[in-house]
Design goal:
Layout: E1 9-11, E2 14-16, H1 21-27
Length: about 70
């Protein structure tokens, strides 16, 4: 079993994925083969608002001179 990432694209009235060429070669996938696909949707993370509700930044007191 080989893991790959692929972007879902519109294909007519359906959605489709492309199997990368190197995976096709490794797994010896041919047209007409029946394969199984595990779908694991990744969550999109936006950098804006990521710390919404977090406590305000507090500057640490000096005392870590041994690290400098």
């Amino acid at each position: 079993m080989t893991m790959a990432e692929s972007k879902v694209k519109k294909w007519g009235n359906s959605l489709g994925i492309i199997i990368p060429k190197d995976i096709v070669k490794i797994e010896e996938v041919n047209e007409g083969d029946i394969i199984k696909v595990d779908i694991i949707k990744e969550k999109k993370i936006s950098g804006f608002g990521i710390f919404k509700g977090a406590p305000p930044y507090k500057e640490e007191e000096e005392g870590h001179e041994e690290f400098w």
